[in-house]
Amino acid sequence: MLHGLMMDYPLTLSTIVEHANRMTPRKTIKTKLPHGGWHEYSYADFCGRVRRLGNVLERLGVAPGDRVATFAWNNYQHLECYFSIPGAGAVIHTLNIRLSQEQLKFIIDHAEDKVIIVDGSLLPLIKPIADQLKTVEHFVVFNHDDSQPIDLPNLSFYEDLMAAAGADYEWRCADENMALGLCYTSGTTGMPKGVLYSHRSMMLHTLGVLQAAALGPTEADVVLPVVPQFHAMAWGLPYACAWVGATIIMPGPHLQPEPLAQMIESERVSIAAGVPTIWNGLYHELRQNPRDISSITQLVVGGSAMPRGLIEAYERDLHVNVVHAWGMTELSPIGSVAKLQTQHQALDAAGRWDIKAKQGYFVPGVDARIIGEDGSELPWDGATMGELQVRGYWVAGQYFKLEDDPDHFTDDGWFRTGDVVTIDANGYMTITDRTKDLVKSGGEWISSVDLENMLMSHPDVREAAVIAIADETWGERPLAVLVPLEGDCDEAALNAWLLQHFPKFWLPDRYVTVADIPKTGVGKMDKKLLRQWVADGEWG
């Protein structure tokens, strides 16, 4: 066999740091500070601090392969950790700040974290379990209020360590197959599972994000990652932005609609990325308090399906281009995007919104298939539903410390996503539900996602979650949990609204009104908790 004669140049993260330092040293990274104001510095400053942090980690005894956890908001120190920990040959383990103490302890022990780098504002969440952690040798704290005492073992302060560290550093990540990052799933069923990324997979994923066919940020963009850095590596945006020199705006803890609206306006953000619940709140804020957000070229939404009605509202009322994306922690996470193609140019506005409400086409680098309950591969006809399975350059092949897992990985090399989908003849995917969230009533499937999206399209509904409840006659029936826009929702009006789109047997048997629907650590509606409330007799 004849082999190519190409240079052996490993796909390692240090490449991004060096490229940013040479090509876009004057571009900036801005962080909204906890108590107001901004921290701003150049990519040149950033790259220098990334090297200093490498020396800090070595002084703390971090060796190649060790896990170093972060417990922080989206800010510049967290961004430094994103590059320096893998550059030192170690593995950055981003801890979800919204997990329970039980889950946090489980994943820290499971990952065998050696060091935890903590944002000072989050100390109350980590201190209760600090003395129970089996492998943690050092706690490093930044953004701490000096007036508040800290009671943590083996405590150091980030900026003190950085000030004492040298500026020259030799990267320890020469092998592209070395582990780079560790993210755990959100744990909506059972305890979280770890996904271990390599330098190679993350570099390929970053190239995937940079494609125009995906998100395609450039040097000219101002990017606001509202998606947390603990959620699937912030969808790869920090790495993509640094590689091309895009301006990065880090929101810190300011994730409420009003400060986000102010940031988008004042910083002239062109790409903003977050989950539907964030953009739902922002839309209502902008309707009540209009601001100039005309700078946005892509409002990227992922994590869960964005209702078609909200996509339409953003585009019709605010003239904002919404880009629906789909992915999972196991995909690093980008899998598909719902951008319009030339074939859609003749569509009217309603037709374009129908396309944008889909999860879209699979980006180059990801392959997909639909599998039926009998194991057969199903057609891409836009109607036949089955489980989505994927494979690709940045798709996980197994979970961390879990080699044999046929429930999630097939013998022929595909990842079982657990999403129930249709794919049309043009390759555009629509997620109809998660396998665990489908309602099976009298032998017929009811899509909770379709019901939720249609309910949230009603002008009186802010949020909706649909779950299955047991029924003696039909096996399961849908229950809808609603957050009204104001006042109460009229059930008869909601039923009439749904009957325009679905058969009568799809109508929820019950509607429950709540002030807020609980969310998981990554901003999705927590249906597991809703089901538990039903089991506990919360609603009679």
Short description:
With 540 residues, the chain is an alpha/beta fold. Among the domains are: 14-255, Rossmann fold, CATH 3.40.50.12780; 439-535, GMP Synthetase, Chain A, domain 3 (2-Layer Sandwich).
Description:
- With 540 residues, the chain is of the alpha/beta class.
- Among the domains are: 242 residues, Rossmann fold, CATH 3.40.50; 97 residues, GMP Synthetase, Chain A, domain 3, CATH 3.30.300.30.
- 29% of the residues lie in helices and 24% in strands.
- The chain is built from 15 helices and 25 strands.
- The strands form 5 sheets. Strands 2-1-11-10-12-13-14-15-16 form a 9-stranded mixed sheet, sandwiched between helices. A 7-stranded mixed sheet has the order 7-6-5-3-4-8-9, with helices on both faces. A 4-stranded antiparallel sheet has the order 17-18-19-20.
- It starts with 13 loop residues before the first helix and ends in a 5-residue tail after the last helix.
